[in-house]
Amino acid sequence: MRRNDARRGYDDACGTAHALELIGERWALLVLRELLLGPRRFSELRADLPGVSANVLTQRLSELEVRGLVRRRRLPPPASVQVYEATEWGLETATLIRELGRWAARSPAHDPTLPLSGVSIMLSFTAMLNPERARGLAAAVAFRFGEVTYLAEVEGGKIHVRRGEPGEGEAMIIAPPTDIAGVVYGGAPLDLLKIEGDRRLAKRFLSLFTLPPKADVPPGETSAG
Q1: Which long-range contacts (CB under 8 A, 24 or more apart) does 22-28 make?
Q2: Torsion angle of alpha carbons 136, 152, 191, 117, nearest 10°?
Q3: Is the peptide bond before 115 cis (omega within 30 degrees of 0)?
Q4: Where would you tag: which of 12, 13, 74, 118 has the fewest CB atoms within 10 A of its CB?
Q5: Predicted pLDDT of residue 222
């Protein structure tokens, strides 16, 4: 940690303690999550993290930049806008975020009906893929959230998600992330989603994901607080 990022630490040499010093502050890990699938404008981050104030978001981005996890750059014309992106080291948190999300989904207090960003639902696919269900399937399905498109590619029982380009994918799903989560993880009807292209493929793709079993927590100990 650089000297101009002075704050209270844990005085503990364990790597876990230092990880919390790097990304353990409120919103820091979620800001990194939103940058895992490509650069974002400040306004996009605000929209997909509705609970954070502009001041706190600015502070977290600045801290993550000082720590070497995030950088700023200006997109070339015609965009010519400033964006934030994860550094190579920052991108290494993808595994951590995926496994942490899968672990936390076992909590009986987890509420899947809360707001969800496009990046969140795409990353959830990487955490919740059932390799047995995906066996023998090779497919690419696009997802469009507003002006942004993501692509999920399944092959060999594995999945890869990334930013997509117009025209990619054998099927495209257009719906709010919360509706997609409702269909995939909550048993909501498929008709909730707008599907273009190969509807049968899209339906199979959406069936590839399963939530882990809930943890066996003693009664009275399942509150989120």
Answers
A1: 22/67, 22/69, 23/64, 23/69, 23/93, 25/60, 25/63, 26/56, 27/52, 27/56, 27/57, 27/60, 28/60, 28/63, 28/64
A2: 140
A3: no
A4: 13
A5: 57
Burial 72-102 (b: 16+ CB within 10 A, else e): eeeeeeeeeeebbebeeebeebbeebbeebe
Residue with tokens 């899209």: 202
- Distances in Å between the Cα of 107 and the Cα atoms of 23, 72, 104, 117, 213 are 22, 36, 5, 20, 9
Answer whether 152's CB lies under 8 Å from 67's CB: no
Element (H, E) at 54: helix 54-66
- pLDDT of 55 reads 98
Q: Which SS3 state, helix, strand or coil, does residue 127 take?
A: helix
